[in-house]
Amino acid sequence: MRQIQAGQKRKRAGWLPQSIRDAGSDRTRKPGEFLFRRDAPTVGLYEVVKGTVKLVRLDASGRETVLYVASAGDFIAEASLFSSTYHCDAIATTKTVVRLYPKNLLLREFERNAEAAQAFMAMLAEQVMSLRTKLEQRNIHSARDRVRHYLALNRDIAGRTVTLPGTLKDLAGELGLTHEALYRTLAEMAADGEIERPKGKIKLNPSAL
Amino acid sequence: MRQIQAGQKRKRAGWLPQSIRDAGSDRTRKPGEFLFRRDAPTVGLYEVVKGTVKLVRLDASGRETVLYVASAGDFIAEASLFSSTYHCDAIATTKTVVRLYPKNLLLREFERNAEAAQAFMAMLAEQVMSLRTKLEQRNIHSARDRVRHYLALNRDIAGRTVTLPGTLKDLAGELGLTHEALYRTLAEMAADGEIERPKGKIKLNPSAL
DNA sequence: CGAGTGATTGACTTAGATCAATGACCGTGG
DNA sequence: CCACGGTCATTGATCTAAGTCAATCACTCG
Known about the structure:
Two copies of one chain form a homodimer. By secondary structure, chain A is α+β, with helices and mostly antiparallel strands. Chain A is built from seven helices and eleven strands. In chain A, strand 4 and strand 5 form a beta hairpin. Chain A is globular and about 55 Å long. The interface of A and B includes residues 135 and 153 of A. Chain B binds a DNA duplex through helix 7.
C-alpha cells in the first residue's frame, strides 16, 4: 500500500505555485456522483486526491463511452481551462476526494507569472511525451517485448535495475496485460536468464542482447 | 492519398501566431539521418511536414527503444522548450521534411503574449486528452468493442455517421488492429446490421443498442 | 497496359485472455 | 498471540479472438 502511494505521489509533482495550491478546495464524492457534467460551465481544474473518477461521454441512447479513468495523483479537465464548458461527464467510481483549482485563479496567475505558465506547459508537454510513449508501447503485441520496452525505459541510471513502483498486478494494468500474463512472462524471462527478480525489483541481465 | 493528407492536415491546427509560423525553417532529412541527438542542446520545436520521424532511446548495448513515431502534422520535442537538452534521438525513417521553430523565439513570444501562451497550453491540453482517450481505447481487448469506441467518439453531430479520415488500413493502425482484423470486424458488424457502409463513411444503426 | 496499393476473404496458428486453484503474507479483532 | 479474511503471486488447463500467411479483385496512375 505504501508502495502504491509512493508510485502515485511521484505521478505529477509540484508544478503549480504554492499560492494556487493553497487555493485548492477539497470535495468528496460517493460512487456514482458527478464531479461535473458535459456542457456545464467550467469552474476549474481537478486533481484526484483519493479514489477514481471516470470521464465518460454519453450518446443519444444513453450508452456511455469511457474516455479516461483517473486515479489518485491525476489531473483532469486541464483542457477545461481554455473552454467555457466541459465536454464530458466526470463521475466518481469509488469514494473519492478531489481538489478543485479555480480556473480564473489559474489563468490570472499564468498571465502575470510567466514562470508558472511555463511550469504548466512543461508539465503538459511531459505528459504528452509520456502518453505517446505508453501508446507506442501498446503497439507492441508480444507480452515479452512489451515488458522489455517497459524495463528499458524504467531502469535506473546504471541501467541494470528497475524498481517496481507498486504491485505486479498494477504493473500488469499499466502494461495492458492481465496479471497472469505478466507473471508468466516474468517467470519465463527469469527462466531464460534474461532477468533476475530480487524482492521489489527486477534486474536486467546484460547477457541478453 | 489526398484523403490521408486531409486527415493529417486537421491533426493539429494553427495554434501558433503567424509571426512564429513564418519564422519556422524547413529542413530535409534522408532516411536514417538525425534531426537531433540525445543530450544535444535544444534548439526548438519541430513540426513534421512530410515523412516520418522516430524518437528513440538507445541503451548501453546500442539497443533502441522506440518512444514515438511521428508523421506529417505531428509536433515533436514540445518538452524540449523547457529543457536544455534533448532526452532522446530523433531519426528520419523516410525522406522527411521538418519545420523547426526556434525555442527562444517561442519562449519570448509566450512571455509577452499571454494569448499565444494560452493557445499553446490549450493545444497541449487537448493532446493530453486525446492521447488519454486513445490509451483508454487500447485497454479494450475486443476488436469489435474497440471499433465501437472509435465510432462513438468520431460520429458527427447527428450521431449517425462517421466519415473515414483516410484508408481503412490507416484506421486499422490507429486502432491497433491489423487491417485484416478491421475488415472482418466491419464486415461482421455490417452483417449484423449494426452499421452500414456507404463509400468513405460508416453509418451507425440506432437499432443496435 | 502493367505496377502498386487498398479491400476483402479464407485457412491456420498461437499468444494471451479466462477460469480456477493454491500458497504466501498481512493486518485485525477477539 | 493466533485464527481468519483479504489480496497478491503463481501456476495449470482451456478457449478463442486476433495475428499471420496467402490469394484475389478492384482501382488508380503514369
